[in-house]
Design brief:
This protein has 3 helices and 4 strands; from the N terminus they run E-E-H-H-E-E-H. With about 110 residues, the chain is α+β, with helices and mostly antiparallel strands. Bound molecules: iron/sulfur cluster.
Length: about 110
């Protein structure tokens, strides 16, 4: 189980956890790697999420990760009670985003510079 500010964010067996929840993703991305240049690979989004403070939800059952979340939906995540969603691999997450949206949002950018 992955908790944030007292709220369950993701729950499931080890094999079911997919790190699709934005907080789970941040948490796993924060584990240091023992190799030179590891910090250079951390993108701006992760740094912004990691440096924001923990805030209590504005309303009782809204998402406590709202202020730090890079994929938040203003007017929804900070207003509506956050639903629990069953993912296809068996884990459950607490998020307004669907599994399909979270997969799409976590995919690497296709932009080529
Ligand atoms: S409910 Fe909204 S703010 Fe909370 S993790 Fe999901 S997308 Fe982000």
């Amino acid at each position: 189980m992955i908790l944030y500010a007292g709220q369950m964010m993701e729950h499931g067996s080890r094999s079911a956890l997919r790190q699709l929840h934005p907080y789970s993703n941040l948490l796993i991305s924060s584990v240091p790697e023992l190799r030179q240049g590891w910090l250079d690979g951390i993108n701006e989004t992760v740094l912004k999420e990691a440096s924001a403070g923990v805030a209590r939800p504005a309303r009782g059952e809204t998402c406590s990760f709202f202020e730090r979340c890079s994929v938040r939906i203003p007017g929804c995540c900070d207003v509506e009670p956050t639903p629990f969603r069953q993912l296809s691999k068996g884990a459950r997450i607490r998020c307004q985003r669907t599994e399909e949206e979270l997969i799409e949002l976590s995919a690497p950018s296709q932009c080529q510079y």
